Amino acid sequence: MGFPVGYTELFLPKLFLQTLSLLGFIRKLISCLFSLLGLGDFLEPDIVWPDDPTHVPQFHSVSALLIREILPVVKFSECAVGEGDPPESCAVCLYEFEGEDEIRRLTNCRHIFHRSCLDRWMDCDQKTCPLCRTPFIPDDMQEAFNERLWAASGIPEFYGEYSPITGL
């Protein structure tokens, strides 16, 4: 068996594509006419791609920024002094630590990572250790962290006197 010769469902997509092509041609024609008449400023500009495609603006969540404030950055050489037996490599990137590497030591589980590795982990909205999944924020600091997060969100100004922060 097979498809009948006059299969009508194939005709509709072909007609749709031809209509889109015609509309694209008309748009390009109008754009050229406006440019020739000096009226190009009245048209919406096309998408302009950046010259440097590797530079992408970074947007960090408020919680990631607050966690970065809580977790200090130190040099690996400073961390290794008096700390028993520190790990030899970062568990995220697997590169060995060197003396001048900037690291972050997690306060709950005491694991250490390169600063950039842990920052990228937090940028993915992760709030736990990549190794053991212990929360970044210790339990005794969780309430203060939540208050700072609430205040930084801008919601207290929206709710005014009914805000949980101002009602404390």
UniProtKB/TrEMBL annotation:
Source domain of life: Eukaryota
Domain RING-type: 90-133
InterPro entries found in the cross-reference section: Znf_RING (IPR001841), Znf_RING-CH (IPR011016), Znf_RING/FYVE/PHD (IPR013083)
Coiled coil location: none
GO MF, any single term: ubiquitin protein ligase activity
Gene3D superfamilies on file: Zinc/RING finger domain, C3HC4 (zinc finger)
Pfam families reported for this sequence: zf-RING_2
Keywords: Metal-binding, Zinc, Zinc-finger
GO biological process, one term: protein ubiquitination
Protein name per UniProt: RING-type domain-containing protein
Source organism of the structure: Liquidambar formosana (Formosan gum)
